[in-house]
Protein: DIS3-like exonuclease 1
Organism: Perca flavescens
Amino acid sequence: MIKTEKILHLKSCRGRKVRVVREHYLREQVPCFSSLCQADCDNADGKVLPGDLTHYVVPDVGVVVDYLEILEFRELQGVVFTQTACQAVQHSKGRRQYNRLRNLLKDPRHDCVLFANEFQEYSYCPREKGESQEKWQTRCVYSAAVWYYNHLAGMMDVVMITEDQDAVAQYSSLNSGVYVISVQDYLQDFWSQVQAAHELYSSISQALQEKESEGTEREFTEHLPAEVLEAGIKSGRYIQGTLNVSKHQHSEASIMTEGLSNKNKDLSWGVLVCGGKNRNRAVHGDVVVVELLPKSEWRGKDTALTEAQGEEKSGEEADSKPMPTGRVVGILQRNWRDFVVTFPPREGPQPQSRNSQRILAVPWDRRIPKIRISTQQADALQDHRVVVRIDSWESTSQYPNGHSVRVLGRAGELETEVQTILIENCIHVPPFSDAQLREMPVNSPERPWRMDPAQVAERRDLRESHLVFSIDPRGCEDVDDTLSVRSLTGGELELGVHIADVTHFVPEGSLTDLEARSRATTYYLADRRYDMLPAVLSADLCSLLGGVDRYAMSVLWELDAQTLEVRNVWYGRTLIRSSYQLHYELAQALLNAEQAEVPELAGLGSEEKDAKLAELTQALEMLTHVARHLRAQRDRGGALELEGVEVRAQLDEERNITALVPRLPLEVHETVAECMIYANHWVARKIQEAFPHQALLRRHPPPRQEFFSQLVDSAAARGFTIDTRTNKALAESLDRALDPQDPLVNRLLRIMATTAMSQALYFSTGLQSQDQYYHYGLALDRYTHFTSPIRRYADIVVHRLLTAAISMDTRADPGRALANNKELEELAHHINTKNWASQRAQKLSTELFQCLYFKERDPESDPRCVADAVIYAIRDNGVLVFVSEYGVKGPVYLRNREGQVVAAGRDGRCEWQSGSVRRHADHITTVSSCGTSTFTLFDHITIRISVRSTSCHADSLNLEVISNKPHRSAEPQQPSSQGRCQLVQEVVRLAEEASQQAQEKAARRPKLSREEREFSQSKTPNLYSLLEEIRELALLDLDMAAHVCATTA
């Protein structure tokens, strides 16, 4: 080891330049991470480059800084990143880009390594006097390339790529076997078939050229230096936070300041930033520093309705009182991600520059400013969705500069819009690679999968002793969980929850595990799903299907038969065979003592069938009894019964939407949910007690009280008092807020309470004090996710923790070391981010299909476009309504842009007339020549639904009031006789028979289709025709409905 010195020129916290001399140690042995190494380098702790390549490639500093996206292509193999280049990225591009490079180096799917050239004795180059930093960095990288060639004894050619033509001229002929060429020449000579890389190179090069030709006139003020921002934040002069641009008022943004809200009551609502100038080049999601304006310039939020409004935190738009207002003075961390933009139709001649055209592309997300793109394909890309990345936003430019990455397709096409939703939420789900699929066990007719005898010997066998069954949505393929309940010889009850043992098939650190960790969850969209695990696991070997042997992780409770108190609890790995694969409707029918066909009993004799059906029904009744007790326990602790807006798109075989079906609640839903909550709670207790500083739990922080303002005010307008001090008080208040004339009132109040809630979070127990573990919504002191490892990576982590905890109890070898607190917290943050992205994508997908449902219908003539709506919020120029039939929330304008207002006639019909509108706390009035019309909270009105289409953004629903009276089909239906119940039962029976025939037919097919094997995606669902048929029949007269039923039969 050789000691030398490294001289650094740094800035102090006060901005003064400081010369720092540091010790620098050089070593002869530094890992090269090449399989061709003959010098016995210590390459065990990282990826190793293969030896069967034609060359290794070493990118220059400028290439890594500007063209990292090209180096991320998996086709480019044998990439050696130097320490010099990585440090340059860290200093010039910031933490986000540096972390991106680090993740690339860690990812085993990418064939690249990091070489610590500045610590290698023979590749280190001290900076010479008067040498520029750029020249020194290029010399360091070239020296590293030469060292690699010599170290491998000339067995592998080395190509250094650079954009510095002087470096090409200087170094290209110095050493044989070490070639120095430009990036463009490298792509053309070695990767001519990777067209996407060539297009990306062209796009980035054009963007860099345009950046050099920027003007000098300032459009924005310069950001303050980092040291000034840091000192200002510490002194309290400046405020740090994440910029959140309003979804509805795009000129408004806010910065939430949770840390300062306790010190300064004025900041409890955050800081408002109005207008683009005050935003000062910050985009949605940036971590910014703001300076408060004088109080005389403080403003309130705009409370007028805007397009596509309908989802906001309760209370955020409650009033327009002045609030702290500021301006952005610096940006600490950019949130520049992949953005989807649309190239709008161009009018007139366009200026051209260097054979390219500069286009202002319009982002799909309305909160993002237009992005200036230089492209040679401006005409061809009109009305297309394109993925772009922002490169820079200088103070001399009104808009940010960026480059295009790839084209998604024409705007408005279904696949294009679905891919847009995924990209906008940073969801990347490529097909599983061949290397990942090679890790999977085989299960085919020729080679059926069988249990390992060693596993059979180690696990507790429940196949003969327990009646195990699953209850899932109809057509479910990824069956995570099964249940069992039985009476023990001592009089106790035994409740069992059995979860798929995914960790047996997915070892930690495997390629499948890394991909599952990256995805973090299965993404469910309206017409498809993207699995976290390959289909051979998610839909077959890990799915607890009926009648097959499977590995499971089980929790078994011995309960007192009378009090249902826990006498004992057992955790462990088991063998199970599910006897029945029930769907919710079938299980509920059995509980209701209705006639129902269980497919597994279809081929049995009458006596045996009746006996087994009685056994299954008794188990379901016992399970329901236990679940009611568990729910009552949580209710006494303050558990909340919240309400969401859940609607699903019914699709035909060609994936065309035929109906929007709201989810119908059944008691069996609650029964299964209570058992899963119980298992999650007990597993949380187990792993937290075993690993108090490194267990993955899930907490639900109490919501901020100000977010309840809309709920409290709306309930008061109806005469109800809502107490929000604790979850128990809130639950009891909501239970009392019942309107016997309109059950939708209570449902809307619960929806408002749900909207006011904070997000539940995964966290590491080492980061929070124990009083922060509490789950507000479920009223549990500890909670985690254990019951869905097929579709949630958090559950896989918890399974591994539980296995380690069980090993500690038995003093067995726990195996691989567990993640420490810091690593677990980073993983928890990643999973939280992906879960929120999944929720947003699912919501946007539902909205997309809601628009598709109405887009092909004429709103003037189609009766399905007319619906009943309930007013749940008042705004300056209209109201927000909820359409329960379709699960739609949105704005209804009472004043249009021309200044006209809605006037209601004596029969309730509405039309536009000149007049005025006045807002009150619980109602809004319009005054016109027809008189005064009043719209009050919780009033039912009739609306017409149409689609508002734009080429650059997502389509949205347009809700227009046509009558201030309820829609006729929305009146409460009181069954006058048993006819309607018999009708529904008949429809259910016919549908079940058809479903059983379809299942028998499907059972004769291969378990996995070619599409499922190749892309690991589910088949197109078609699950809701029954609910749609019931809904349509319910709208008919009773006599007509009976006639239809008889005809169908």
User: Anything to note?
Assistant: The two ends are 89 Å apart (CA to CA). DSSP finds 28 helices and 40 strands in the chain. Residues 76 and 191 are 8 Å apart (CA to CA).
